[in-house]
Amino acid sequence: MGIFKRFQRQAPEVITIVSGLPRSGTSMMMKILEAGGMEIFTDHRRLADEDNPKGYYELEQVKALKDGDDSWIKDAPGKAVKVISSLLEYLPENYNYRIIFMRREIGEILASQRQMLIRRGGSSEGDDQEMAEMFQEHLKRVRVWLANRPNMDVLYVDYNALMAEPEPEIKAVAGFLGLNDHLGAMLSVPDKKLYRQKAA
Questions:
Q1: What is the mean pLDDT of residues 88-95?
Q2: Residue 115: inside a domain, yes or no?
Q3: Domain range enclosing 114
Q4: Residue 52: DSSP 8-state
Q5: At 156, is the secondary structure helix, strand, or coil?
Q6: pLDDT by residue (tens digit) across 131-186?
Q7: What is the CATH classification number for the domain harbouring 126?
């Protein structure tokens, strides 16, 4: 019995992940969690700019997940870290995760991405219909994949609903993560002046 106890696998502390497509409101959600008292896992390398004036809240090492480098994950339990949806499948399976997945109108995401490209001197040309279909198919696959991960609890948050009426969505986040004592601070984060690409 003593030997069994010694080698019994201990459940790791939960890691909170904020995910979604790029430009879906993930940075804002990270700021909401910070206001809620969560420790944010970021390296502050990507500085605030015109596209994200309140910061990106990114960890550069996360991008290496696809290359098999998850060395940073050992420092993530108990913290919140941003991982875009295309990288979720590379998270190591020996951890438990609470995932806040941001959803936003695809047309707004495309408009926001296009504006970002223009500001950086890139081309804004492209087939929006084709990109929209690709994003929708990706999101469908990710949702099915997440539903079959026993180590991942997921809360889907509607960015458009949050910006229209923050309280219901943020209350759901606070309840999901146990942050109800900081609800007031969390509700102060959404800034409608930064909601610049709106669906028609």
A1: 96
A2: yes
A3: 12-188
A4: S
A5: strand
A6: 999 999 999 999 999 999 999 999 999 999 999 999 999 999 999 999 999 999 99
A7: 3.40.50.300
